[in-house]
Specification:
The chain is mostly helical. Helix content is 43%, strand content 0%. It has one domain: Cytochrome c-like domain (Cytochrome Bc1 Complex, Chain D, domain 2, Orthogonal Bundle), CATH 1.10.760.10. It is built from five helices and no strands.
């Protein structure tokens, strides 16, 4: 048996945390119930990691991989003192439209209303400036 074939099960286990043939619905219990605030936080984290983390960083501290390219640097969203309505506005319209960094793009035509709302709920959940974070 070739060495790669013998190592395949270990690689699959390390890469995905599951073996082939595992029940894909078994992990469903790990998801929050649909329609709950926890579900919005969960979905918002997914959207944030896909669209925002490159600049704002994986922990939303303003230190993403692309942050060093911009002056001013992206906002630290963990310590932001902005309210949820302002965050929604800047996500929808971009930084330039609200007198902030021109490098913050408008996401209003890219993201759905639910995605934007979920991101705001997620940001609210991690914010420590107003005592919001859990």
């Amino acid at each position: 048996m070739p060495l790669w074939r013998a190592a395949l099960p270990l690689c699959l286990l390390l890469a995905g945390g599951q073996c082939l043939g595992a029940d894909p619905l078994a992990a469903e219990a790990d998801y929050p119930a649909k329609g709950t605030p926890e579900a919005a936080v969960y979905r918002g984290a997914i959207v944030f990691n896909h669209y925002c983390a490159l600049c704002h960083g994986p922990k939303a501290e303003g230190n993403g991989r692309a942050a060093k390219l911009y002056t001013p640097r992206p906002a630290n969203l963990v310590t932001s003192d902005k309210n949820d309505q302002y965050k929604e506005l800047i996500i929808r319209q971009g930084g330039k439209m609200v007198g902030r960094s021109e490098f913050m793009p408008p996401w209003g035509n890219e993201l759905t209303n639910e995605q934007i709302s979920d991101v705001v709920v997620y940001l609210h959940s991690i914010n420590v400036a107003g005592g919001h974070a859990k």
